[in-house]
Every structure is written in structure tokens, then in C-alpha cells.
Amino acid sequence: GRQVKIPVNISRVLSTSPPPTTFIYMLAPEKLGGWVGGPSKEAGKFLPKEHQNIPTLGWERSAINYEAYIALKPDIVFTGVEMKLDPSRAQTAQEKFGKIPVVCIENSRNATGYAKTITFMGDVLGVPDRAKVLNDYYLGVLKEVLDKVSNIPQEKQTRVYYAEGNNGLSTDPSGSPHSQLIDVCGGYNVATCAESPAAGMTEVTMESVLMWRPDVIITTSREFTNQVYKDETWNMVSAVKNKKIHLAPAKPYNWFDRPPGVNRIVGIPWTAHILYPDIFTDKWFREKATQFYSLFYHYELTDEELTSLLKD
Q1: Which of 77, 89, 162, 236 is least enclosed, having the fewest CB within 10 Å?
Q2: How many domains would you assign to the chain?
């Protein structure tokens, strides 16, 4: 494996993709030198004032603007790697960044594997205590949900379709990092399509969705949510008929997916509550969401703000 010498004093850090960027912000916001795929101005209201003016770097999976990164003079750069997708990514980045150390992190997209990454990045950034606080919350919520859903027999699992794209006819099957919260929270992901590697979003037909009979639809598309109830064919799907379409809250980052990073930790109690409201009550979910914003986003969310996020 690669060996990297990490500087003793680190005051400015960048990342080459969105998931690790959220880790940096949550662990040491004062050290984040630039957002990659940062929150919109509107969404940025859910960050403390002192962190609202962090510069934003554009992001394309295939085209990193190395000059813009180097100009910000980072002490280190994190890069998320998934060996099966792009084993040479770290080496390529290191060649481009020259003397700036490039530190690899794994599991930045695995919703059940964030703990090691949080601990490792906390050590690198010199904030191990902060990492422990975040992990205590994350592992506590994860264990509670996994324990409670482990006894649900398959025939009683809530049938879920993840609707992506403006027409709702793209999705990610079970096993994809993008739809992972359905699996984690004991839902039955009805999509039986192939997984599109890396970016996901496999296109499917309306006939397939009708055949899959979802009880609940989770989506990250406002356009889809706005028009689905007016569509005759979609109204043949019981999730639509029964008004069981849930648009994932997205400020400052999406709770369910894109980026599929630590921003989704709050999506664990949200998804569990949507799928099994009798087991995971509204009061329990709201408590967990408020705690998450305080610990991870450094923002004290009011009850009214939480309600508006859920309606948004």
C-alpha cells in the first residue's frame, strides 16, 4: 500500500469528492478549505454563520480542477477510494498534487461502515475526541435500528421503491450505496434491476414499477413529487394512491442520498420512522434529528425548522 507522511500541524484540508468533504466539515469545520459539491445558499442557512463563507470548488467525477485546489494551499487532501471502482485514483491524485500529501479514505459511501473512517479522519485532523462523540451517536442509532428491524419477517417488510430523476423512472436496487438506507432500515427494496456502477440511477419502465407494487416511495426529486399525484398511471401504484411518497429533506445536505456520505446518518432514523412508524415514533425520530444537527452540523435546529425541513 501507499505510505503518506502527514504534517504535524494541519490547518487547511480539502477533499477530491463530496462524501469526504462532509466528514471534514463535521469533524473540524474550521479546517475545511473548500466545499466540493457544497450546499446551496438556501441550504447553507442550516450551517453556523462562521462556516457559511467557505469557498466552493466545482466537482465532476472525471475532471478535477487541480490548479484551483493547489491555489487554496491545503496541508493535505483526502480522496475517497473504492478499490473495485478506481484502484489508481489515489496515485493519480498524488501525481497531480505533487508535494501535498493525498490521504486515502475507504468507506466514505458505506452507511454501516462510517465509524472507522470517522475515527481515522479524526486522528489525522487532530480531533480524536470529536470523532468519538460523533461515533457514539452514529453507532447508537445504527445499532438501535438494526436490532429492532432484524426480527421483521420478509413478508411483513415494507415494500419500498426509490424514485430518482424528474420522472421517477430511475432507481437503485438493493446492494447499491445509493439506496442503502432502505436495506439498513429493514425495508424491502422492490427494484429487481441491474445496478449501474458508481453513479447509479438505472432506468426502469413504468410497467416494472406497477409490477413491483411498492407500499412506500422515497425520492430525492422535488419535480417528481410535484407531478406524480397528477399522473394517471402513477396513481395505479398503491404508494401513490395512499399518499405514501416521501421527499427526503435536503438541507444543508440530502438525508437519503447524493452524496451518499455521512450526511445520511440522520437519514437512518428518518427512513426507519417512515417505514415503521409504530416502532420508530415521531417523537423519537425528531429527537434524533435535532441531536444530529447539533453534533454533526454544529447547528441548533428548532422544532419549527425541523418541521419546515420535513415539509420542504
Answers
A1: 236
A2: 2
pLDDT tens for 184-210 read 999 999 999 999 977 899 999 999 999
Q: Looking at the domain assignment, is residue 222 inside a domain?
A: yes
- How far, in Å, are 99, 247, 297 from residue 4 at the CA level? 10, 42, 29
- Cα 140 to chain centroid, rounded: 18
Q: 145 — phi, psi (to 5°)? A: -70, -50
Query: What is the separation of C-alpha 178 from the centre of its chain, rounded to a whole number of angstroms?
Result: 8
Q: What is the pLDDT of residues 26-83, one digit of tens each?
A: 999 999 999 988 888 899 999 999 888 899 887 776 678 899 999 999 999 999 887 7
In whole angstroms, give the CA distance from residue 268 to residue 262. 11
Q: Are residues 41 and 176 in the same domain?
A: no
Do the domain assignments include residue 7? no
Strand partners, 13: 32, 76
Tallying the residues shown for the chain, one arrives at 312
CA distance 267 to 289: 9
Residue 108 has which C-alpha cell? 466514505
Residue 219 belongs to domain with CATH number: 3.40.50.1980
Do 100 and 162 fall within a single domain? Answer: no
Tell me how far apart the alpha carbons of residues 23 and 1 are, in angstroms, rounded to a whole number. Answer: 23
